[in-house]
Specification:
Layout (H helix, E strand, L loop, with lengths): L1 H9 L3 E6 L4 E5 L4 H16 L11 H9 L13 E6 L5 H4 L11 E4 L3 E5 L11 H8 L3 E5 H12 L1
Antiparallel strand pairs: 1-2, 3-5, 3-6, 4-5
Helix pairs in contact: 3-6
């Protein structure tokens, strides 16, 4: 992760910090999120020789909206069982239609804007509604973070 932070710093981003050694980076930039994402993706691809790298960039306000929009239901009140699956892009309408949301009950999922909220009653390690599931159904890349990671990243952004 140190290499990744150094790479981003050298690409012109400021105050670059990682969280949990898992690709969660908080940084400062004057660039719009989409432009920053393209620059970060290009830097990673060139440095590490990857063909295609997706980077999801959210500012503090956008991440706050994602967190605030997480469904609330008394039957799914344990936030430790919530996960955020961030999508590399917005899927086509016909792809959204392939989703049901309750076919793997008691696990559930709910579509948001650029994110899918996943509730895993028995933990993410046991659910069938993981990144691969959404990537196959929606034809976009996905990455998932748990409630604690997403809320910690927001705290880091607000500091």
């Amino acid at each position: 992760m140190r290499q990744l932070c150094d790479l981003f710093q050298n690409a012109g981003f400021r105050d670059v910090k990682n969280y949990l050694q898992s690709g969660n980076i908080v940084l400062e930039s004057n660039l719009p999120p989409e432009t920053a994402g393209r620059r970060l993706s290009k830097a990673i691809a060139e440095k590490f020789r990857f063909d295609d790298v997706d980077v999801v960039v959210l500012d503090a306000a956008a991440l706050g909206k994602v967190i605030d929009a997480c469904p609330e239901d008394p039957k799914m009140a344990d936030r430790a069982k919530w996960y955020f699956t961030f999508l590399s892009k917005i899927p086509a309408d016909q792809q959204w239609k392939s989703l049901n949301g309750s076919e793997y009950f008691p696990d559930r999922y709910f579509a948001g804007k650029g994110v899918i909220y996943v509730y895993c009653a028995n933990g993410y390690g046991r659910t069938k509604i993981n990144n691969g599931f959404f990537e196959q159904k929606l034809k976009v890349r996905a990455t998932t973070r748990n409630w604690n990671t997403v809320t910690k990243l927001r705290q880091m952004l607000l500091q």
